[in-house]
Amino acid sequence: MRVLFVEFHRTFRQAISWALDQRPDLEVVAQAGSVAEGRRKMAEGGIDAAIVDVPLPDEGATDLVRELCESNPSVPVLVLTTIEERDVHDEFLEAGAAEVLSKRITPEEVIAAVRRLAGEKPATVDGVRLLISYEESHLAYRDVVADSIRALRPRTEVRTVYLQALEDEIERVDPHLVICSRPNTFDLGGRTAWVTLAPEPDDPSEVCLDGRRRVVENPGLDELLAVVDETAELMRGRYSLGGC
After folding, report:
1. pTM
2. Which part of the chain has CATH 3.40.50.2300?
3. Angle at CA 101, nearest 5°, toward 70 and 73?
4. H helix or E strand, kind and range, residue 132
């Protein structure tokens, strides 16, 4: 997939472009640092998808997205932004963007999003969508847990998110399983499974599966993997699941 990347911050643009270029199926063939430059690169053609970062130094990022989508509807557009307001995200979706994501996501999440633009879905035969969120003081812990589950359960779609963006990401992704340092107060009854993972080992953690709750003391990776497997079994075996 040939990608146009429009991003004002040169270092970030080049770093993400490098990460994309390491994948055999992805290549950033054009980079731009402004709306005007993005228009010129767009006119040159030869792209299969576009990433547009917002805000840009010159006005008209929404217009650029609209122009990209209208001039070639087969070229999907991913918008990355530091702006969290829902109405701003909706504005870009109305302009034709395929997806709008927080710029705080990791390079791996950008890569996964670009692949989604091409209609590629993560290999999720067991159907489990997992969302992991944790205290900002423990982000390394969150990320190593996510990487371990990706490696050991490769058919599970694993995403990470900051706590302050958790509610929006739950609404967007609709995960089956959430592993989080906070109990579910956003969407009561709406998840197949929810693990409230206590930040301190001495505090009890809680696992909820299909509406059934149990307390777990200082759970290990093996117990989290067991919850992933139980969630997959529940989803394969029943059409109506209790909520957590």
Report:
1. 0.52
2. 2-117
3. 15
4. strand 129-134
Distance of CA 105 to the CA centre of its chain: 7
Please identify which residue in the block is written with the tokens 């909820």. Answer: 208
Which of 133-143 are b and which e, b meaning 16 or more Cβ less than 10 Å from the residue's Cβ? bbeeeeeeebe
The CATH-assigned architecture of domain 2-117 is 3-Layer(aba) Sandwich (3.40)
What is the β-pairing status of strands 212-217 and 204-209? antiparallel
Look up the CATH number of domain 129-237.
3.40.50
Alpha carbon distance, N-terminus to C-terminus of the chain: 39
**ω before 201 within 30° of 0 (cis)?**
no
- pLDDT, tens only, 191-230: 789 999 988 888 999 999 988 899 999 999 999 999 999 9
The residues, any chain, with a CB within 8 Å of residue 63's CB and separated by 6 or more, are 35, 95
